[in-house]
């Protein structure tokens, strides 16, 4: 479960990031394994430009769990209309 502070961190300065993070929260966070939830919490600590670099196809971070989560976010199906 995300704390109020973590939910606040999900609100980013870029609409694209808000959409990606919001989709993950809606489609996967609650049922994710604890290691993936911890990786998501670390992801929220990244600056917007660094996060967008990773999600936009730049080189992934060296940390395996964080890299796997970023690949998962990149491959999430679009939100239903």
Automatic annotation (TrEMBL):
<dbReference type="InterPro" id="IPR050531">
    <property type="entry name" value="SdhE_FAD_assembly_factor"/>
</dbReference>
<keyword id="KW-0143">Chaperone</keyword>
<keyword id="KW-0963">Cytoplasm</keyword>
<dbReference type="GO" id="GO:0005737">
    <property type="term" value="C:cytoplasm"/>
</dbReference>
<dbReference type="InterPro" id="IPR036714">
    <property type="entry name" value="SDH_sf"/>
</dbReference>
<protein>
    <recommendedName>
        <fullName>FAD assembly factor SdhE</fullName>
    </recommendedName>
</protein>
<dbReference type="GO" id="GO:0006105">
    <property type="term" value="P:succinate metabolic process"/>
</dbReference>
<comment type="similarity">
    <text>Belongs to the SdhE FAD assembly factor family.</text>
</comment>
<dbReference type="Pfam" id="PF03937">
    <property type="entry name" value="Sdh5"/>
</dbReference>
<dbReference type="InterPro" id="IPR005631">
    <property type="entry name" value="SDH"/>
</dbReference>
